[in-house]
């Protein structure tokens, strides 16, 4: 590439970066829209007013010192000038104090308001994102980077730095006009002195950000190792497999690598800052000597006092500018993570306007559905077709990775099929209003949530608008068998579950699962999906739930994913998946008679239970289907 092309490319990059930064600044300012306009404008005005303080101070100091010198010489009127200048200096000092006290108060209020608003926006956005954004590592990294900014602290700092930079600039301009009115050359030297240090700060802030950006995965890994050694859910395994030292070693290796890179950066940053800072110091010292010498020839002592104060004022304003620009640059990049996240496209899964039926009349149909997870080549479903008649209970079985949960994700519209169609009551699924569709599906996922909240919420979240309807919550708990233990709690449905909060009560795995089932039952929706709903529930309770499933989900068309044949056999229809395709379907009896995969696996599991001694059922059959 020629030097000219490289230059053009660099210019284009700079241009792109600048317009991106301008966009982020605009987004930061726009985020203030919902906050108190009076507070925002008062803060901006007060902060900018403080910019006039240094120039006024220099002017008045020069006046006062000259008046003192003239008074000593007995120049007429010098005493009055001195009184005026001294009064001016006092007024400026008091004014600055009042302005900055009020500005600090407004600043702290706005910071609280801003943090709360951004935190809320991040949460709302999280609920609107596609599942793909959570399951794709790159998108998840972006999400995590944004979460780190979700307190709004960095974005607010950008606002503060914009103000500080503007104030410092305004202050420099005003000080310059005073200095230029005295001596142009001296003004130039004083003003340029801080530039080299400024340049070093900007360059290294940029490098620091790039380093942090590229290590996002490793940072997350380090947090993960920390998490494994400090959370209740992983404690038992880490302890008994003695994983502690290994995890600490992995963590240490990562942070040592961070340290190695950061040390290199710190050496260069501080080395260059020291060298370039020396240039700045030399500039200021030269200006000082020049000011002293020129005062000898002009005899204007007031101006000398002004120069000396100006050196300090320029140092402070340039420092403010330096800090403002450097931190503004770095924080703009970090806050970019937040705004990039907030402006991510929402819901690639598109829906229509058709309301979802209260009860299915025909059924659910998958027609030649193929699905690949975004960013992967693996075909999770391969021309999958099936029909689940309305009002029936259909079971999905298949080996691990066969595609069962993927069917659930497509039916619940968490993903869109790559090709093929899903019809509900003969209508393509995308014609239904997505929110309405999701409201009309009661689902228990394999990895359901254990809300660290009262039982009422854990069950009531099935119909959040009816959280206070204790009778319905009780009925749902009775349907899943959760009432048996909840009624035994002192605070019954107001008992807080989990261990994270004070007074929380921990449940067993099976009890949690019954609570999750109650949540889905409460929904009383036309479609019920239970993805491995009873894996942790004892066989007696499982038989009871499934024996009554039709009564519990009386209006529903249900889809049950299970590895347990005792659960599966009661279904009206069983779909057997293998490698993302449907390989067999029928009732339990029909599939046994067919003598295919289902029959083989059923017998394997049944034999394992009937084997009098030796290997236990789990060992013999495992999770074969
Ligand atoms: N989020 C994802 N991103 C990429 N690939 C995925 C994702 N989830 C699942 N897969 C892949 O899709 C295929 C089907 O997975 P799925 O979870 O549907 O299987 P399953 O039948 O439910 O398995 P199991 O019985 O273990 O729950 C598997 O090959 C799996 O590796």
From TrEMBL:
> What name appears for this protein in its UniProt entry?
ABC transporter ATP-binding protein/permease
| Swiss-Prot/TrEMBL keywords | ATP-binding, Membrane, Nucleotide-binding, Transmembrane, Transmembrane helix
Q: What is the lineage of its organism?
A: Bacteria, Bacillati, Actinomycetota, Actinomycetes, Kitasatosporales
Q: Which residues form the ABC transporter domain?
A: 364-604
* One Pfam short name: ABC_tran
Q: Where in the cell is it found?
A: Cell membrane
InterPro entries per the UniProt record, alphabetical = AAA+_ATPase (IPR003593), ABC1_TM_dom (IPR011527), ABC1_TM_sf (IPR036640), ABC_transporter-like_ATP-bd (IPR003439), ABC_transporter-like_CS (IPR017871), P-loop_NTPase (IPR027417), Type_1_exporter (IPR039421)
Membrane topology of this protein: Multi-pass membrane protein
So where does this one cross the membrane?
A: 40-60, 182-204, 272-292, 304-329
PROSITE patterns assigned: ABC_TM1F (PS50929), ABC_TRANSPORTER_1 (PS00211), ABC_TRANSPORTER_2 (PS50893)
Gene Ontology MF terms:
ATP binding
Q: Boundaries of each ABC transmembrane type-1 domain copy? A: 42-291
């Amino acid at each position: 590439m020629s030097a000219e092309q490289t230059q053009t490319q660099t210019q284009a990059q700079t241009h792109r970066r600048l317009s991106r930064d301008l966009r982020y600044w605009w987004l930061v300012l726009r985020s203030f829209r919902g906050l108190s306009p009076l507070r925002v404008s008062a803060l901006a005005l007060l902060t900018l007013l403080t910019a006039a303080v240094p120039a006024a101070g220099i002017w008045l100091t020069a006046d006062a010192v000259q008046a003192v010198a003239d008074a000593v010489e007995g120049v007429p009127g010098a005493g009055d000038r001195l009184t005026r200048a001294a009064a001016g200096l006092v007024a400026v000092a008091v004014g600055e104090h009042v302005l900055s006290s009020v500005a600090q108060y407004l600043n702290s209020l706005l910071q609280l308001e801003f943090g709360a608003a951004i935190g809320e926006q991040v949460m709302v956005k999280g609920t609107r994102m596609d599942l793909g954004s959570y399951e794709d590592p790159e998108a998840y990294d972006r999400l995590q980077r944004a979460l780190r900014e979700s307190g709004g602290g960095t974005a607010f700092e950008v606002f503060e730095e914009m103000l500080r930079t503007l104030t410092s600039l305004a202050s420099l301009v005003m000080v310059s006009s005073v200095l230029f009115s005295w001596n142009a050359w001296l003004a130039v030297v004083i003003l340029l002195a801080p530039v080299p240090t400024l340049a070093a700060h900007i360059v290294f802030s940029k490098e620091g950000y790039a380093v942090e950006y590229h290590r996002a995965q490793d940072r997350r890994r380090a947090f993960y190792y920390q998490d494994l050694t400090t959370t209740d859910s992983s404690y038992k395994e880490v302890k008994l497999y003695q994983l502690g030292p290994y995890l600490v070693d992995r963590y240490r290796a990562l942070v040592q690598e961070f340290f190695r890179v950061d040390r290199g950066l710190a050496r260069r940053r501080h080395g260059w800052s020291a060298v370039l800072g020396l240039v700045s110091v030399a500039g200021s010292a030269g200006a000082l000597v020049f000011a002293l010498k020129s005062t000898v020839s002009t005899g204007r002592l007031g101006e000398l006092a002004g120069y000396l104060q100006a050196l300090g004022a320029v140092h402070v304003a340039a420092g403010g500018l330096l800090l403002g620009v450097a931190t503004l640059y770095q924080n703009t990049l970090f806050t970019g993570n937040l705004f990039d996240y907030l402006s991510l496209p929402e819901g690639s899964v598109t829906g229509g306007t058709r309301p979802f039926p209260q009860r299915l009349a025909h059924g659910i149909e998958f027609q030649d559905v193929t699905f690949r997870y975004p960013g992967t080549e693996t075909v999770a479903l391969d021309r999958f077709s099936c029909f689940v008649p309305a009002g029936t209970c259909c079971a999905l079985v298949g080996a691990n990775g066969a595609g069962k949960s993927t069917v659930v994700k497509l039916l619940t519209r968490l993903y869109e099929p790559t090709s093929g169609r899903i019809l509900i009551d003969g209508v393509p699924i995308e014609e239904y209003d997505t929110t309405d569709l999701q409201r009309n599906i009661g689902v228990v996922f394999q990895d359901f949530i254990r809300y660290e909240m009262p039982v009422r919420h854990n069950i009531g979240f099935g119909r959040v608008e009816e959280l206070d309807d204790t009778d319905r919550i009780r009925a749902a708990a009775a349907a899943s068998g959760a009432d048996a233990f909840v009624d035994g709690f002192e605070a019954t449905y107001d008992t807080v579950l989990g261990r994270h909060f004070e007074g929380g009560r921990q449940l067993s795995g099976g009890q949690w699962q019954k609570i999750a089932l109650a949540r889905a039952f409460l929904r009383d929706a036309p479609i019920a999906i239970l993805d491995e709903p009873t894996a942790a529930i004892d066989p007696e309770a499982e038989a009871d739930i499934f024996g009554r499933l039709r009564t519990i989900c009386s209006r529903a068309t249900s889809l049950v994913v299970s590895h347990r044949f005792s659960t599966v056999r009661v279904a009206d229809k069983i779909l057997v998946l293998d490698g993302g395709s449907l390989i067999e379907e029928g009732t339990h009896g029909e599939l046994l008679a067919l003598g295919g995969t289902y029959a083989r696996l059923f017998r394997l599991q049944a034999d394992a239970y009937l084997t009098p001694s030796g290997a236990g059922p789990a060992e013999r059959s495992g999770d074969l289907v």
